[in-house]
DNA sequence: ATAACTTATTCCAATGAATTTACTAAGTGA
DNA sequence: TCACTTAGTAAATTCATTGGAATAAGTTAT
């Protein structure tokens, strides 16, 4: 049970409309004040006054004149892409990744730090210090994606087994140290935020991003908002049972999706059936698929088949028409997508499937840092639905 | 991709705060102006002026004084439960049900009309006319739940095979005829709205109501909002495949949840295995369970088992902690819940299951009309999250 | 070239909802 | 009776949006 909604005050209205104007310009590319007014239903006066603030804040710039349509030519506005820089952090199991991006998600700096087994927090500080040292644009804040159960509202890492973190108030720690706004969220959720902000399905009301790597997690947008769940555990689809009498999973059950469709499951199976001197890698799987290796293809098809079942469940439940696959397995591209789509068609209603678009992410290995920064962007500048 | 959010205007703010005050009183039972101010963070002045309007509108009344706590005793306010009456309609496959309820969901009138094979719309008019004829409180509007694909935003029944309706602009038709606000939604969605407004999990941020009758559908609340889906098809879980090589379903696939866990599937199986002179009914199943009939119990357990799998998927995906079962099968109560909970524990992560609460609906057979009225209530008076 | 017209943008007074401050109402406790 | 507390109202203030007029800067018809 959640409490009452917030009250509406003048300041709130002001902020809301200010963000609305900014978003219109952000989405519009190069747009005039009048067109912003038309788009938002705000009066030209209100738009002008907000644009004045945005110009003052150096978030927006005037970029020339539109051709006249029989009257005074409009002054075109566009977002000053590097008006702010954003720090995005990816606290992965084995390394820390950090990027500095601009307001459009263009990467301006990238730092990586292999975890040395020592205090993770200290190494995180080190990474942020490095990133900040090389930046001279005003920094909007810090966004963080991390594995585990993360209370985004409180800014607390409730559980992150791999990192040894338990109820760590990371937001407040970093906020105090750097004097910047800090936001954190689960890495799968953050991946979805990345797609929602910078990906191909930008601004989709309903969007499901399935992250297939060592484990399998999903990030879900419903009605334009990220789904956290009642205990910040939404998207744990790795442990959905798809093979009632399958392999034992680390969670204690049998036949979890993770045991048949995760990247590690695939590679482990390859190591067992087609041993090499070195363990298999995704790149080698790609090569084998290109060479049409039947054993490899059969294993990939199997993974795709079960992913298709899981996605069919999602599509049936939520009627989300945009599904995106991310994570290392997504690198297989069409070799994964084609059998997956077949499986989806077998396991969900035809009318639903026909309208569903399953794609592979195009954001690459920076997706988590991008999403972390997008989380920050959404909260600080309102580049987000309402 | 959805458009920009709406602008904030003074009128909007006013309406927002007006509704906020009303909701605080609605939720509060008997509450003073000052306490409303504390709860909402509005100033006492703002609360007072809004309360004045609510008193004027006869939506709220003063109901006495609170004991003094060392100062002037507070005047208690409460919602005038019958200040408005709401029409809720259930357009079922074989009959039309209509109720008039008050602001608290208390039923003031009930009318039923068996469909005679003729024009459904004409019979719907007839039902509404009957309901209106016997009411003398001001009517807030009309809410409708119907099977099929319903565009709630547009107020259009896109597809309702059983009723022979296709792209019927029901909202506008009824709105013109009766001069009242009209809202419609899919019956499963409406069922969830009923639980969210009047049920045991009132105001739960995340809530899944599974409706098991002839078919199986779900209504889902996420982040306090009903999930419609991209094409108004959310909640179609009846056709999730739970038995990869099971029975052929009417949808063309094999082993859909509907083929093993719907009320009709259960009764059909009983008619086949334990034939009677009359077809089996749910009441007879209840009686057989009370008498511990092993065959009946095995079949119920089987249905529960597969429902448990489907619910495990939902819980894993959404981390919703409130699950409610409604529809005719839910009448089996604990005989259904116990095996279902066992199955859920087998198919979802322990930590998730431990926090999940699976219950049976207590709203009975008026649930759709109640939910339809609640949809109206939410939209007209803002008894809803934001 | 000039006048008439369009369209974009700004200026300025008016509006109105929330806020602030001051005040009244109505109790308790010393 | 007086000091104090709490509830609620009234009047003055604030400030973001609004609406109308003014200005800027073009195009089109004459």
SSE diagram, text form:
The structure is a homodimer of 386-residue chains.
Chain A (H helix, E strand, L loop, with lengths): L9 H19 L2 E2 H8 L3 H13 L3 E6 L9 E5 L5 E7 L3 E7 L5 E8 L5 H14 L5 E8 L2 E3 L4 E5 L4 E4 L1 H9 L3 E5 H12 L8 E6 L3 E7 L2 E2 L30 H5 L1 H11 L8 H9 L3 H25 L3 E5 L7 H14 L2 H5 L2 E4 L6 H15 L5
Helix pairs in contact in A: 1-2, 1-3, 2-3, 6-13, 10-11
Chain A binds a DNA duplex (30 and 30 nucleotides) through α1 and α3.
What does this structure look like?
Chains A, B: Belongs to the ROK (NagC/XylR) family. Chains A, B: InterPro entries: ATPase_NBD, ROK, ROK_cs, WH-like_DNA-bd_sf, WH_DNA-bd_sf. Two copies of one chain form a homodimer. By secondary structure, chain A is of the alpha/beta class. Chain A folds into three domains: 10-79, Winged helix-like DNA-binding domain superfamily/Winged helix DNA-binding domain (Arc Repressor Mutant, subunit A), CATH 1.10.10.10; 85-193 and 368-381, ATPase, nucleotide binding domain (Nucleotidyltransferase, domain 5), CATH 3.30.420.40; 200-362, Nucleotidyltransferase, domain 5 (2-Layer Sandwich). Chain A contains 13 helices and 16 strands. In chain A, the strands form four sheets. In chain A, strands 6-5-4-7-11 form a five-stranded mixed β-sheet, with helices on both faces. In chain A, strands 14-13-12-15-16 form a five-stranded mixed β-sheet, sandwiched between helices. In chain A, strands 1-3-2 form a three-stranded antiparallel β-sheet. In chain A, helix 1 (10-28) packs across helix 2 and helix 10 (294-318) crosses helix 11. The longest helix of chain A has 25 residues, at 294-318. The first copy, chain A, is globular and about 70 Å long. Chain A starts with 9 loop residues before the first helix and ends in a 5-residue tail after the last helix. The structure holds a DNA duplex (30 and 30 nucleotides).
């Amino acid at each position: 049970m959640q409490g009452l909604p917030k009250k509406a005050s003048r300041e709130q209205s002001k902020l809301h409309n200010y963000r609305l104007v900014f978003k219109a310009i952000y989405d519009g590319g190069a747009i005039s004040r009048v067109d912003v007014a038309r788009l938002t239903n705000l009066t030209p006066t209100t738009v002008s006054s907000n644009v004045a603030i945005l110009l003052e804040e150096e978030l927006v710039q005037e970029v020339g004149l539109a051709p006249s349509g029989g009257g005074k030519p409009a002054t075109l506005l566009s977002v000053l892409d590097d008006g702010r820089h954003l720090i995005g952090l990816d606290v992965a199991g084995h390394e820390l990744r950090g990027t500095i991006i601009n307001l459009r998600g263009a990467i301006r700096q990238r730092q990586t730090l292999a975890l040395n087994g020592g205090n993770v927090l200290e190494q995180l500080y080190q990474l942020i210090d490095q990133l900040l040292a090389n930046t001279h644009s005003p920094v909007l804040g810090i966004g963080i994606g991390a594995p585990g159960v993360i209370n985004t509202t409180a800014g607390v890492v409730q559980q992150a087994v791999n990192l040894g973190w338990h109820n760590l108030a990371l937001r407040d720690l970093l906020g105090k140290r750097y004097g910047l706004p800090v936001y954190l969220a689960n890495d799968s959720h953050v991946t979805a935020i990345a797609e929602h902000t910078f990906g191909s399905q930008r601004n989709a009301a309903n969007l499901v991003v399935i992250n297939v790597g060592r484990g399998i997690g999903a990030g879900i947008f419903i009605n334009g908002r990220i789904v956290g769940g009642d205990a910040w555990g939404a998207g744990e689809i790795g442990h959905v049972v798809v093979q009632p009498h399958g392999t034992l999973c680390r969670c204690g059950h049998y036949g979890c999706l993770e045991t048949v469709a995760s990247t590690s499951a695939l590679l482990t199976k390859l190591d067992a059936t087609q041993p090499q001197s070195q363990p298999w890698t995704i790149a080698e799987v790609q090569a084998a698929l290109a060479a049409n290796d039947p054993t490899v293809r059969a294993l990939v098809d199997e993974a795709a088949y079960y992913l298709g079942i899981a996605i069919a469940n999602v599509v049936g439940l939520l009627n989300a028409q945009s599904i995106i696959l991310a994570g290392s397995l997504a690198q297989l591209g069409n070799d994964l997508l084609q059998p997956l789509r077949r499986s989806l068609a077998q396991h969900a209603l035809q009318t639903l499937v026909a309208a569903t678009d399953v794609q592979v992410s195009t954001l690459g290995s920076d997706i988590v840092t991008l999403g972390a920064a997008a989380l920050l962007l959404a909260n600080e500048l309102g580049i987000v639905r309402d």
